[in-house]
């Protein structure tokens, strides 16, 4: 058995999900806005993986909790948004609703090393 930093050991009766793409809700912390196709480091549990924001699906109006289309394609500081992430290596995760420790992550700017967002992995909308 080969186990490395960031690997997850789980019980066979409770398998986790493994994928290169995840859907997430994020809160953006940085004055520099998030745009689609932005490259970041995803810090998930003890694992750091390079990733890209493939799509910004919508923002959430904080006052009404309604979905708002992203007209300019940019998420600004303190915005809450639904995004699609693609990772360089498969990510082993649970949905945040099931396990907040393995369902949460932070995004780090790979050039400045700043934490730019916090996120929760959510189920795909159907």
Molecular structure report:
The protein contains no helices and nine strands. It is mostly beta strands and 126 residues long. The strands form two sheets. The chain has a six-stranded antiparallel β-barrel with strand order 1-7-4-3-8-9. A two-stranded antiparallel ribbon has the order 2-6. Strand 3 and strand 4 (47-60) form a beta hairpin. The protein is globular, with a radius of gyration of 15 Å. It starts with 16 loop residues before the first strand and ends with a strand.
Structural class: mainly beta
Number of strands: 9
Low-confidence stretches: none
Largest sheet: 6 strands, antiparallel, barrel
Number of helices: 0
> Helix proportion of residues, in percent?
under 10%
Q: How much of the sequence is in beta strands?
A: over 45%
- Strand/helix succession: EEEEEEEEE
Distance between the termini: 37 Å
Could you give the order of strands across the largest sheet? 1-7-4-3-8-9
Mean pLDDT across the residues is 88
How would the global form be characterised? globular
Radius of gyration: 15 Å
